[in-house]
Records
---
Amino acid sequence: MSAANRPDVLDSLVSLAKRRGFIFQSSEIYGGTGSVWDYGPLGVELKNNVKQRWWNAMVRERDDVEGLDAAILMHPRVWEASGHVSGFSDPLIDCKACKARFRADKLTDAACPRKPSKKPGEHTDCQLTEPRQFNLMFKTFMGPVEDSAAVVYLRPETAQGIFVNFLNVQQATRQKVPFGIAQIGKAFRNEITPGNFTFRTREFEQMEMQFFVEPGTDMEHFERWKQARLDWHLALGLDRDRLEFHQHTEKELAHYARAAFDINFDFGGTLGFQEIEGVHNRSDFDLRQHQEFSSKKLEYVDQANNKRYLPYVIETSVGADRVTLAILVNALREEAVPGEQEGRTVMGLHPALAPIKAGVFPLTKKDGQPEMAERLATALRKKFNVFYDEAGAIGRRYRRQDEAGTPFGITVDGDSTANDDVTIRFRDDMGQIRVSTSKVVEVLTNYLEADHPRADAARAG
Ligand code: ATP
């Protein structure tokens, strides 16, 4: 399906995200901060689950990747070596008539604020300036004196913390090339045109991994990581036909890069297919630059083969916020309910990613049902994030959890206390099964540990 065929769900997602507590605008009571967002109770659970999945796949389940948590503030020379001081800029164009700002390289995607059906420059009033380079790094000062010697930057990517620690990690862990270093952390970019909810923000989190390989073996590792990263997105439940590789053209490719592919996701509407992750073969550019600027040897010594060299780097870089947005867009659906006038809104999240795993509901507030349901909720809480709710009609309680993406609803009814069993209702097909109370943990665990992207009763057997 082409991008144009999928509807734009961002507006309804923004309002659902606020209503249910996934994502709020930062400093909302003061009118909001431009393109900065806060994760609410459901959002923080969802994003943590995404980060946990990444950490497990990239670090815990492998013996050739080590974890790291480098600081946000780094020596200012790092950013000279990396090329960010001189080159991390976007071409900025101002419109003198309406004061809007545009990225020159994204002009064809932008709309004239005075007449959104036209591109900037197409309206008779437009007065566009020539493009000028605008550095995207946030600057601040280290220590009490605000002079140029005290300038430090908020990191615009996490990768440099990995490069400068390459030998520290290698020597501490005694890893042999090929091996990787992975980290999750905040990055900051003073973007010219942030927007589209959390798609492009000024403060965001990256999940990056640098895999150090012997020159000459780099393309083979590159291909392997490209596939592994696509598979990771598929296992989160992103639809296969919403994902594609975009190969960087000669013009897009950095001068030092040997190859680069983006993994693009179709966000629908006018946004369409956009990058969520980059997989790059960066040659030995970064280590060579740091070796030169720091005057410290960063070569890897291959003792077994009596060789020393600067490894090449295969980088995988994915935005935690951007992939979380892709997951929400992919999961959101409105559907009719047979026999009911009102349809329902469902956040069809992969059960393992869902912020709340199960809602626990007494059908009525009598006959010991609330007590039994509370006991069950307390027992389940030791293993899962569950939500106990006894307020209002059962149908409405189910609907609230459908919107929150909760895969299972566990209901205690009039027969439960006598038979010691409950009903499990599945979010995706609304099917129900009856299970004995002692089996609930097992049924839920099976779903959470399997790679089923959906939760439905049809699979329960
Ligand atoms: P773009 O061309 O969209 O500005 P980029 O190519 O500069 O992105 P990278 O530097 O490759 O992006 O960053 C790697 C990943 O970090 C991206 O794929 C994206 O998921 C995430 N990312 C980058 N910039 C932002 C941002 N401003 N807001 C949210 N996520 C971002």
---
Amino acid sequence: MGKDIYLVIGGSGFLGRHIVDQLRARGDNVSVFDIVQRYHDVPFYAGDITSVESLSKALRQSGTTCIIHTASPPAGLTDASIYYKVNVDGTQAVVDAAIACGVKKLVFTSSAGVVFNGGDIIDVDERLPYPSVPMDAYNDSKAKAESVVIESNGKGGLLTVALRPAGIFGSGDRQVMAGLWEVYEGHKTHFQIGDNNNLFDYTYVGNVAKAHLLAADKLETPAPAPALTALGKQPVSLDE
Ligand code: NAD
């Protein structure tokens, strides 16, 4: 199979930029689609993901075969409607444009928060269902966007995957360190929540970016056929 041509949606952002850097470092053809332009070293398409038209134009002009969709409003906004508009309607528009333009692969950045209900989550895997009462609009919209992506797998030849990072840290972060700094500046560091045994997963941004590249590469590998004996069947002889 030939090399993919990538469009990183949200490629001007923290994680998106690391994905762009890693694709460039391995010599791949990559463009960015975003509402803001922060870098000028790759082809840039200005647009909002809620517009199928803008997306389709960028996909056709760039010849994209693989979309990596990292765009989202930041967590913590008071206006919930922006999350549903961008994350749910916008992600549906990404899927629609991808299928209309014959894109082969879509890697979506979801969030570990999609299964968080405010309680401890220990030793679980992706089979854990979404909570009946979502944590907040951001996480609810990410769960709904993730469902849109997963349900579109196989439609019109599009292969999809969703990744769920927890907290991301590293160079270019505008959320995690800013929040910690605000606590420090506000002299709130003497408050402790819990018994000092609370855990939260953080992953280095370079590793999260690498996971997106690996997921994209893996999407084109056909799933191995299950052994017939594993399905409780006997092989059929073609000579009979
Ligand atoms: P970021 O804000 O740095 O980057 C997001 C990018 O998306 C920005 O460049 C922004 O301009 C763009 N964008 C926003 N709305 C858009 C729209 N309507 N159309 C086009 N572009 C739009 O955020 P980030 O921290 O890099 O997060 C990237 C992804 O990772 C998000 O989907 C987020 O939900 C997910 N995530 C982040 C964290 C974290 O700790 N940062 C943790 C878990 C999941």
---
Amino acid sequence: MSDQQWMQRALELARLGLGNVSPNPMVGCVIVKDDKIIGEGYHEQYGGPHAEVNAVQAVKDQSLLVQSTAYVTLEPCSHFGKTPPCADLLVRHQVKRVVICNEDPNPLVAGQGIERLRNAGIEVEIGLLKEEGRVLNRRFFTAFEKKRPYVILKWAQTTDGFVARENYDSKWISNTYSRQLVHKWRAEEDAILVGTNTARYDNPSLTTRDWKGKNPVRFFIDRTLELNKGMHLMDGTVPTYCFTEGEDENRQNLTFIQQEQITPEAILASISEMKIQSLIIEGGSGLFNSFIERGLWDEARVFIAPHTFGKGIAAPHISGELLSAEDVLGDRLLIYKNH
Ligand code: AOF
Ligand code: ZN
């Protein structure tokens, strides 16, 4: 087996943490000796042991660790956080070589983990499958590098390009399976946002009720505090925040975020401060267009359902790179990445 194949396995393990580790990155670790895996693990839960700790613990005969190679998808940490530094763990067990996919952008680590390993005489190689690693941890890297959450736009449109009828009487466009898939996606992200009209006309819950997984924190916009107090978004089942330019009201089940002027930049800045690394925006078209105009989006997931409306509210236009196109029980799912 090649270095690349072991790293592929470490990335595969890392991915199992999706939805459970944020705001930490997904990290996998495979420890190899004489071309055999002697232990592997991943960062399973926020606050829990790091990937390296789980991989080392999985090794039955710890003496095998001496002169082994560790494949880690992220630079081993050098800081005392919720756990002691992973770099020290690898040094203590006299690992011979450490192969790393990505450097850790977290200023608490940022190269210092690598330095610790090298200072202890361990061979370190960096950058193997680094593009795959960056895609896997795109939320984590975006949060550190762009100082804003990773933004996913999600909408469903008709074949003739409408996201709603003119009277908004068109809550469901995509099929049941597509909608379950959206619940899965919600479970993978930290937060979800909708605009005023979507909140008003769809009265969405924005939960993961058709999927086993955690609910994202909910955000909606109500500039002038005109929305009905009985909406699902105010049912208290999930922490929910309302962006408003109005007066702060004392209301059960809702936290207000007052902004002088609600803009995509201001929204993302507030959300970033809450250590939220990813945001899925689910409508409506006005909100999509304001984020698209400013280039403040990273990924768009678009369902095209086999219906036509003839007229209505137009779907947003994006110019991005098409990453994938597939059929989802009769709906077409297109995934785009911003350039
Ligand atoms: C690793 N291996 O599996 C992960 C790392 O609060 P803590 O102690 O869990 O530390 C979180 C930081 O540690 C996180 O921001 C990132 O820099 C690094 N994550 N490092 O060596 C791992 N998950
Ligand atoms: Zn660590």
